[in-house]
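Subgroup meeting minutes
Present: P.N., E.W., G.H.
Scribe: E.W.

1. P.N. recapped why we're keeping a running log of single-chain structure predictions: easier to compare across weeks, and new members can see raw inputs and outputs side by side.
2. G.H. added today's entry (164 aa).
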Amino acid sequence: MTNDAATLAGPLADRSAWRADRCPIGKALGVVGTRSAMLIMREAYYGTTRFDDFATRVDISEAVAAARLRELVAAGLLERQPYREAGQRTRFEYRLTEKGTDLAPVVLGLFEWGAKHASPRGRPPVDLTHGGCGAPVHVEVRCADDHPVGLAEVVVSPAKRRRA
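Output recorded in log:
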């Protein structure tokens, strides 16, 4: 077994001296930490916008769909937009916001991990490719200088204080 853990630096090196109670991962899971929320986001990335379609495609009850969509709207990942078909009452579509689109690499990473480790023979039922060139899409961690970064190369240190 290899040691592929991140390096905790500075005061974080003593794990008994701090708690991860403000962790962004925990905060993010508070927003999208249910299976149905992640699958609704998947469907939004695939172009689903209507309530009934979310409930059907995610295979959840209308009550669960309503609760998850309310939560995702409240969190700012989706926004409601009214529409009205001839002879019908006004209803709402759910559209991705910038915040919702920013979550896409996480969902694509889950897709990639699931394809490799949870799909039969490591093969997903669909392929994700770049529309511009046709190459397969994959998710990776890169630093701001565009170097690929493995987990063992990540250094976790206290956030630098920003000047007001």
